[in-house]
Amino acid sequence: xxxxxxxxxxxxxxxxxxxxxxxxxxxxxxxxxxxxxxxxxxxxxxxxxxxxxxxxxxxxxxxxxxxxxxxxxxxxxxxxxxxxxxxxxxxxxxxxxxxxxxxxxxxxxxxxxxxxxxxxxx
Length: 122
Description:
Elements: E1 60-65, H1 71-84, E2 88-93, H2 103-112, E3 115-119
Parallel strand pairs: 1-2, 1-3
């Protein structure tokens, strides 16, 4: 994922979307970001960002290990912290970090979890 913030030029990165309106920098005090999807989309789609829940109480949190080195270490600790707060946790793992998660794994996560945390580590 690549981000651009206040004061960056209008031009989009290859495959990206321009975050600021024409005319250059964003107004002082505001921040606009361009998020690039690294899955090689030929035509990027717009996705609305979902609102974060105020609390995790009563929700099932999915922890997704993308199979990069030490991601499991981060998720192990996160699972400890969440379960200490009585949050229900489910663990998932991609077979490889080099490809998107298989459709059956994405379906299982989307139908059994309310919130997902993905571990990226090296």
